Amino acid sequence: xxxxxxxxxxxxxxxxxxxxxxxALSGGADSVALLRILRDLDYKIEAAHCNFHLRGAExxxxxxxxxxxxxxxxxxxxxxxxxxxxxxxxxxxSIEMAARELRYGYFHSxxxxxxxxxxxxxxxxxxxxxxxxxxLLRGSGIHGLTGIRPKNGQIVRPLLCVGRQDILDYLHSIGxxxxxxxxxxxxxxxxxxxxxxxxxxxKQLNPKAVENIDKTANYLREAEKVYNAYFAGNPDMAxxxxxxxxxxxxxxxxxxxxxxxxxxxxxxxxxxxITKQPSAExxxxxxxxxxxxxxxxxxxxxxxxxxxxxxxxxSATHTLLIDRSQLVLEPKQxxxxxxxxxxxxxxxxxxxxxxSVKLTNDISISKSEECATLDAANIQFPLTVRQVASGDAFCxxxxxxxxxxxxxxxxxxxxxxxxxxxxxxxxxxxxxxxxVGQRTxxxxxxxxxxxxVLSITLTHNS
Length: 462
Hints:
single chain, alpha+beta, six-stranded mixed beta sheet
């Protein structure tokens, strides 16, 4: 068994004989076996034990055991005590998540303090199979079905090549005892149910069930490399949070005061670029899952690609719209408060948007879409800058009669998401005098009788 683990460590370049390594030691069979094997393989190791004070006397028993074990093996032990329940309450997380955050936070900090290169944890093949099954039951994609990885940053798992029974047999062969966490014997949480009920049944059906599921996870891990290489090399996509996200344009007049222009939203991608992919579903999953869209939603989006334009899908953080021949993605919009402009001056609508308002006797018409020049005699303060509202209408410059803003923007092929973000400037009487960046109102145009001009200039920091 030691040779098998030694070969596994070498194959995945997990440990170096020249470096110091920290072993996470709970006192259970798995971590005790890991400690003994790495010591026998002549790796430089120290141990770390966390007392979470969640199991009363059992927690203290575990601590006493690892103290005695490390003393007998002349291995330096680092101990820490946590008030896990208080941490969970303060941070509003589950006890399991609190223990995980405390444990790994401590391990990484300790590694830095003692100069350890890695944190060795005792996950084994059965743990990896349990994780595979848990993700399978949740409807995971390819990333979730690759199981537990041998190495994840500073965390390494040298025992993934052996199973739980192998570990127990090894400890029995060397006469090494260990402690048992009584909560692992309770069929309450999903992982315990899989371990205590499902896996034994699968082994009855096929004695090599665990090994075969582990092989499948390994095959998927190799397939994932091809999968990732495809998306990384796809010229229609650019890097995002985890995988890839298409980026095509950024509108200049956004109404989200909290939106950083670095994010470059909304992002859009033509429908024909999706349908021509070898797997449109995988393509959508890679694009949308980092933004909170689940597998069920992605399946619905895929079905809707051939339907009517205007379908909208929401995650907790983002909005996706099927807009004519493209998909458009953007963060959900928080309510934007109108900006009141009581007199001429400079006014900041958002960190990215500034409006400069002035009265001038220079009777000239601006040709810039970022500046509106209007007949000041017909406009009363205060002005208001706000997002467009349902039913808004104005008289577009150069046109006769009133027109709904939504119809005007549709004629200009502006997407629904951009329509919602569109800004307007209104006069004191409520009339829209400027559809920002698009068109001024014909009723407030400069004419031969104009004596004073109201100039509104927008500056957008990109």
